[in-house]
Amino acid sequence: MKKTFDGMVVLVTGANSGIGEAAALAFHAAGAKVFGVARRKDTVENARSRHPEIRYLLADVTKASEISGAIETVVKEAGRLDVLVNNAAIFSFAPLEQTTEEMMRAQFETNVYGLTFASKAALPALKASRGTIVNISSAAGHKPAPGGAVYGATKAAVESLTRSWALELAAVGVRVNAIAPGPTETPGFDKMGVSAEAVPAVKAEFVKQVPLGRMGSTEEVARWIVAIAAPDAAWVTGQVVSIDGGMSLT
Q1: ∠ at Cα 37 (231, 17), nearest 5°?
Q2: Cβ count near 229 (within 10 Å)
Q3: How far apart are alpha carbons 233 and 228 in whole angstroms?
Q4: pLDDT value for 189
Q5: Which of 11, 32, 52, 204 is deepest in the core (most CB within 10 A)?
Q6: Does residue 4 come out as left (phi exceeding 0), alpha (psi in the -120 to 50 range) or beta?
Q7: pLDDT digits (tens, 9 = 90+) for 83-140
């Protein structure tokens, strides 16, 4: 039986863990030829060993030349690119008084600059295929939280870029949408700059804001990434879809 993405090529950034890994696997299950990008050699090698069905490439999205080179490899090997999923992101929380230059630069460079570098590099191939960009935002992009100002600002930028690019690229047949997850069980919580002992309490505080009363799973988010990229969603562009257990309502 023909699958939704048969004959199509998908590139997912930050595909070595969390939502990106789940999205890469979901696109593969839907029939796509999937390429994943990660920025560290060890994570690329580990991902390759876990998922030999995914073609993993080493590239840092914050370096325009590296992500451009990765996209060139995808198009050279696969002959086309139909979907770009801009998932690579980092987050750390701190109140204004404890916010450092390094913390700000790292988040904007990955979450905003990296997403823009990847989208620009992919655009010629996406125009040729009349493809689609799916940006991964966050509930933090439109729901303020104490200590989350910098991360939230990067995701607000992602949502603004999504809407502007959707208008800009509609004439060439390229759709641009965003998925905005609420708190999701990913390894990112272990890298957010708090002690391992504090992570459960941080998660519990997030869950208090979710009407459905739990964290989401990466598979639940990935399902919607695939859905909004699918050919039968061809009438949808410029949208930010909240997959957050109702968090945006509180």
Answers
A1: 90
A2: 29
A3: 6
A4: 67
A5: 11
A6: alpha
A7: 999 999 999 889 999 999 999 999 999 999 999 999 999 999 999 999 999 999 999 9
Alpha-carbon span 72 to 135, nearest angstrom: 20
User: How far lies 82's CA from each of 94, 104, 107, in Å?
Assistant: 38, 32, 27
The closest of 175, 76, 184, 189 to 130, measured between CA atoms, is 175
Adjacency order of strands within the sheet including 175-181: 55-58, 33-38, 9-13, 83-86, 132-136, 175-181, 240-243
Catalytic residue among 5, 27, 117, 151: 151
Cα 180 off chain centre by: 9
Burial class (CB in 10 A: 0-12, 13-18, 19+), 73: middle
DSSP 102-141: HHHHHHHIIIIIIHHHHHHHHHHHHHHHT-EEEEE--GGG
Is the pTM here over 0.90, yes or no? yes
How confident is residue 2, by pLDDT bands cut at 50, 70 and 90?
Answer: confident
> For the chain, how many residues are written?
250
**What pLDDT shows up at residue 192?**
57
113 is catalytic: no
Q: Is 107 in contact with 140 (CB distance < 8 Å)?
A: no
Contact 90, 138 (CB under 8 A): no
Closest-CA residue to 47 (of 32, 33, 36, 62)? 36
